[in-house]
UniProtKB/TrEMBL annotation:
UniProtKB keywords: Hydrolase, Metal-binding, Protease, Zinc
Record domain Peptidase metallopeptidase: where: 37-198
Top-level lineage group: Eukaryota
Species annotation: Solanum tuberosum (Potato)
A Pfam family it matches: Peptidase_M10
CDD domains, sorted: ZnMc_MMP
UniProt-annotated stretches for the region Disordered: 1-24
Cross-referenced SUPFAM superfamilies: Metalloproteases ('zincins'), catalytic domain
Protein name, per record: Peptidase metallopeptidase domain-containing protein
Parts of the chain that traverse the membrane: none
Length: 214
């Protein structure tokens, strides 16, 4: 399947996204945008399954960073994400690769290209295994990339959002290295809710929703 994302790697350090070949989409009153044709996961799916490539042997703390990132989005839309152990029959496949990985889009050395991500319903997320990824609680400084910050942004693509011109938005096009930015802005929430509707538990503020213990 031909997809617009795998030629458009994400970048940090102020280099912009390679988006110039794509016509601007559906800009509305807000600053978020969608892919052309507004692809989204079918409404028959209320749960998206994801899995990590078992060969990557990721640590639990890395997996938890992904879970936290998915939770940010499922808090505002009526979609949940479930981690599966097997790579079979999942919606979202997450892999770390180094350099060439057989699709004509090799990863590079440090920085520049960090990820390849695909719009729905493809669900591929490739991460450059050579980056200085750090997970929450680790000491973050210049030259390091906060994994969760990047993953929150990439999940936006996996759901069908493209970049936002709103600086506070998770979907803003750049992330400074050595910084952490993991909270959705109202611009992100409004954008993704236009695709999927609102989570009935979403109260419109950035306060953390605490599920009841029942
Ligand atoms: Zn981006
Ligand atoms: Zn790739």
């Amino acid at each position: 399947m031909v997809n617009p994302r795998c030629g458009n790697p994400d970048r940090v350090n102020g280099t912009t996204h390679m988006n110039s070949d794509k016509s601007p989409t559906d800009h509305t009153v807000a600053n978020f945008s969608f892919f052309q044709g507004k692809p989204r996961w079918p409404s028959s799916k209320s749960k998206l399954k994801y899995a990590f490539l078992p060969e990557n042997q990721l640590t639990d703390s890395v997996k938890v960073a992904f879970k936290r990132a998915f939770d940010k989005w499922s808090k505002v839309i009526p979609l949940t994400f479930k981690k599966m152990d097997s790579y079979r029959s999942v919606d979202i496949r997450i892999r770390f690769f180094v350099r060439d990985h057989g699709n004509g889009n090799p990863f590079d050395e440090l920085m520049k290209i960090l990820v390849h991500v695909f719009a729905p319903p493809t669900g591929f997320l490739h991460l450059d295994g050579e980056e200085n990824w750090v997970v929450y609680d680790e000491f973050l400084k210049e030259g390091m990339v906060d994994l969760e910050s990047v993953v929150v942004h990439e999940i936006g693509y996996l759901l069908g959002l493209d970049h936002s011109s709103e600086k506070e938005a998770i979907m803003f096009l750049t992330l400074e290295d050595g910084t952490r930015k993991v909270e959705l802005s109202s611009d992100d929430s409004e954008g993704v809710q236009m695709l999927y509707g609102s989570n009935p538990n979403y109260n419109g503020s950035s306060t953390v929703y605490t599920p009841s213990r029942e």
